[in-house]
Every structure is written in structure tokens, then in C-alpha cells.
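Example 3.2
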Amino acid sequence: MNKTQVIRIHENGGPDVMKLEEVDLPPPAAGEVQIRHAAIGLNFIDVYLRSGLYKAPYFPLPLGKEAAGTITAVGAGVSDFSVGDRVAYAGSDGAYSVERNIETRHLVKVPDDIPLETAAAMMLKGMTAEYLLNRTFKVGPGVTLLFHAAAGGVGLIAGQWAKALGATVIGTAGSAEKVELALAHGYDHVIDYSRENFADRVREITGGKGVDVVYDSVGKDTFPHSLDCLKPRGMWVTFGQSSGPIENFNLAILNQKGSLYATRPSLFAYVSTPEELRGSAGALFAVVQSNKVRINVHQTYPLVDAGRAHSDLEARRTSGTTLLIP
């Protein structure tokens, strides 16, 4: 039986609870393939599962939801994938590994003109941008939106994509350098929230009208001020909590702030079937192939240094997309 290296946690805690371990790697079971990873995506959901903010389904838990690589073996009954296929996925625990087995229902084939490292950098973040802009709230010409963490991995993709869809795109970022980065990725206006009140600036930019939709992955630090940025009957989309969870949310505040809508979506509910997954990934691949959206990897770490990568992400020392390289 082959061996592989995988980062697992046996309990919740800080980055130090992540352990690189050697484990057995059996041949792929029926409906599975075996993949050798070329690159692995780093995402806040990995931090949430490690810390305990999201409840781990079991222990020891192999971390990581997103990666790309090459199929090295195929299990019984698999007819739509072959050895040598370049594939990517977002949503199956165990991406922080050199090799792994995975059910084919999680996989999509990567077009030949997209490098595997690019695919690993964009699957979870890019499909998140896809569902947010195309399905949670339909963005197009005439729409004005606010996207928090504009210089983050999802933010840099969403800014370019929203601009390509014809929207007016406002972002927030936490430093002058991150403001400049976001402005280079589709944003019409970027507010440095470390220096300005973002709700006041949004009102100023929009002539007092507010925006149609706020996309908020920050959570505690941006609530309830995100609601003050919205037009009457606007939509607040909270899809993460990098600064901590929002507590004691009172539905009446939506009435008080202008009959607002609120939703708490997740990618995995939007790609829960193979058809939805292929549709979302196909839209992402198409917008990248058209050069309307550029995928830039801003940091890479060896897989063995995943703990340091988590520390840097949590301390906001990173921007854009981060990859782990096995």
C-alpha cells in the first residue's frame, strides 16, 4: 500500500494543532480517483475548521477544501475521468496532502490553457464570486455594489468580474497598499477602512443613495455598518466572518435600516449537484479564458509550512490568493 503525507488536526486550536502526518493511501475505491496534487488553495474556511468556529465533522480531520492535480489511478465504475486528466475541486476535506483519493462527483476537468496552479488558486474563491454575482444577487449594468475585503482572494476576482458585468464596484481594504491592489482589479472606488468611515464614504460616493448590495465576508467588524450602506430594500450578503461571528442578530434591524434583505449563503449549497458544480466552474473558466478576470497568486508556502500560512492569513499579512505547494 502506498503512503502519503497529509496535514490533520486532532483537536481545535491555533496553527500549532496542525500536524503533517504520513498515512496509508489505499487504491481508489469505486467511484473514486487518486490525485497527485500540484497546488493547494488556502482559504478562511480552513482556519474556521481548525479553530473550531465551524464544527469539525470528525477527528482527526484532514484540512483543506481546494486543490488541483493529475489523476494517477482510477477506481471501479469511473468512466468520465482517466489517468492523466488534469482536475480541480473545491469542497472535499483533505486537500492539504501530497496525494489523495477523492470521489469524482467533486471534480471538474481543467482546460488545457489553464495551469494547475491557477486552477488551485481560483476554484473555491472563483466559484464563490460566481454564485455571489450571478445567483445570490444578479449583478449587471446599473447595479452599484460594495465588496468588503476587496484585496482578498475572493475580492480581487469579484472586483474584476463585477466590472466585466457592467456594475459600479466599490470596495474596502485595510491599507494603502491593499487599496492600490484592489483598484488594479476592477474596483471604481476603494475605501481604506483603517482611515475612513466606510459607511459615510459609500453614502458620499453614491450621492446619498446607497448601494444595491453589500457582500460581506468580514462579519463582526463591519456589522451593522454594512446595513447603513444599502438603499431601501437592498440586500446584505454575509458569506464569512474573518473578524469573528456576528452575535445577537435582531431581525428588526432590517426594518429599521430600510426594509432590507439579508442572506447567509455558502458555496457548497450552490454547487451541491454535479450539474451546478460544472456550471459554476464552467462560468469561472470562461471568464478567466476571456482575460476579463486575472488570477494572481500573491503568496506560496511549502505544504509543511501551512501553520505559518494560517498565521499570516489570520493576521491579515496576506493579500489575494495563497497557495500551498506539496
